[in-house]
């Protein structure tokens, strides 16, 4: 029996699109029809590079116009890795063209813009999903099983996540993430989005009551209208007993870890965004025991490693392939899944409130949101 194929188009030739090219190639229910760019040469070069690395039997065509790609009736879904500052226009155009949408993160430059984008998607009965790959990893439900179906962690009290990388000089001078026009949230939109998502997931999508955000360092490239966050930290207060913290930065070496601590122990994952290269993924739980015996004060290490069979990347079981497969399944079935829109909306809301707090000199900010979305 032949698997129904979701026919994809890619709007833009950003580097991350090369990873999702392979994801589309590896997904059994997807194929790539076309790549659009504002330059025919860039579209051709992008296809040449990717087709050499992960070839389709029938290579996609290059189109020198985003509008022309969206007008095609042989495309069911589009991946949109365009800069956040201009993405709203193309998400709305794609939705009105009846295309299901995988959008890069952050979803929008503001919650208000994202609500408008979602409204158009719903009016046209198309799915919106953000490009957070770890949401589709087999490791995540395994972590959830430990958190919610065992007593290893207990009631969650504190969640901490750091996501950073040390940006090279050429990044600081030229990258779109250094432009307040193209990526106004800087490291918060690029890196903090993942930490916020992990925190909300661990809290079963419960929203914090209050947040405190601080832009520790800001900077920009020469042509940017304003500065963007380069280093940022935030506190999320859920109630009197449950809090969370995230730190993101373009100034610190690679980190992408999360720690979820509770009344009985803790769960730690070292590489929740981009898994370390391996054929299996893991996370650890710990319940250290502290004992005193006369003059002996001992902390006993009790760590259990949990492994999941899943390739880190570039395989049919990798999280980016599972993401593409999921949206392809939705597109092929014709039934939207509101959960994906809801969690993107909540991530956007929390991020915006953290940035609003930072813009108010770190003032504690009450979180308001529309629970019906």
Q: How are the strands of the biggest sheet laid out side by side?
A: 16-13-12-11-7-10-9-8-17
Structural class from helices and strands? alpha/beta
Instruction: Predict the CATH topology of the largest domain.
Output: Dihydrodipicolinate Reductase, domain 2
Q: What's the number of helices? A: 10
Q: What is the CATH class name of the largest domain?
A: Alpha Beta
Kindly provide the radius of gyration, computed on alpha-carbon positions and rounded to a whole number of angstroms.
Answer: 21 Å
Structural domain tally? 2
Cα end-to-end separation: 38 Å
Overall shape? globular
**Percent of residues in beta strands?**
25-35%
CATH superfamily of the largest domain: Dihydrodipicolinate Reductase, domain 2
CATH architecture of the largest domain: 2-Layer Sandwich
| Regions with little confidence, pLDDT below 50 for 5+ residues | none
Q: N-to-C SSE series?
A: EHEHEHEHEHEHEHHEEEEEEEEEHHE
What's the overall average pLDDT, rounded?
A: 97
* Helix fraction bin: 25-40%
Please count the beta strands (DSSP E, at least 2 residues each).
17
**Main beta sheet:** 9 strands, mixed
């Amino acid at each position: 029996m032949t698997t129904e194929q979701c026919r994809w188009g890619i709007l833009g030739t950003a580097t991350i699109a090369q990873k999702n090219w392979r994801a589309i190639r590896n997904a059994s229910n997807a194929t790539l029809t076309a790549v659009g760019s504002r330059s025919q040469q860039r579209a051709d070069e992008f296809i040449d590079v990717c087709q050499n690395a992960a070839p389709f039997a029938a290579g996609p065509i290059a189109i020198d116009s985003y509008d022309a790609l969206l007008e095609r009736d042989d495309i069911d879904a589009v991946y949109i890795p365009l800069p956040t500052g201009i993405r709203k226009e193309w998400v709305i155009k794609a939705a009105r063209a009846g295309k299901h949408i995988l959008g890069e993160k952050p979803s929008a430059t503001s919650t208000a813009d994202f609500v408008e984008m979602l409204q158009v998607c719903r009016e046209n009965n198309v799915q919106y999903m953000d490009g957070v790959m770890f949401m589709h990893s087999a490791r995540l439900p395994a972590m959830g099983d430990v958190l919610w179906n065992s007593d290893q962690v207990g009631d969650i009290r504190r969640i901490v996540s750091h996501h950073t990388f040390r940006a090279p000089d050429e990044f600081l001078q030229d990258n779109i993430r250094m432009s307040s026009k193209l990526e106004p949230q800087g490291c918060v939109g690029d890196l903090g989005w993942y930490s916020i998502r992990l925190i909300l997931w661990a809290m079963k999508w419960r929203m914090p009551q209050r947040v405190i955000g601080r832009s520790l360092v800001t900077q920009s490239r020469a042509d940017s209208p304003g500065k963007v966050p380069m280093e940022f930290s935030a506190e999320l207060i859920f109630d009197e007993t449950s809090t969370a913290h995230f730190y993101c930065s373009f100034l610190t070496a690679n980190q992408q870890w999360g720690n979820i601590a509770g009344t009985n122990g803790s769960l730690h994952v070292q590489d929740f965004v981009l898994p370390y290269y391996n054929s299996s993924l893991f996370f650890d739980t710990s319940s250290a025991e502290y004992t005193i015996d006369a003059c002996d004060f001992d902390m006993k290490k009790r760590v259990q490693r949990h492994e999941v069979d899943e390739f880190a990347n570039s395989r049919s079981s990798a999280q980016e392939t599972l993401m593409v497969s999921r949206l392809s399944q939705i597109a092929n079935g014709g039934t939207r899944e509101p959960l994906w829109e809801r969690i993107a909306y909540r991530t956007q809301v929390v991020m915006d409130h953290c940035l609003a707090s930072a813009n108010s000199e770190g003032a504690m900010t009450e979180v308001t949101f529309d629970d019906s979305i």
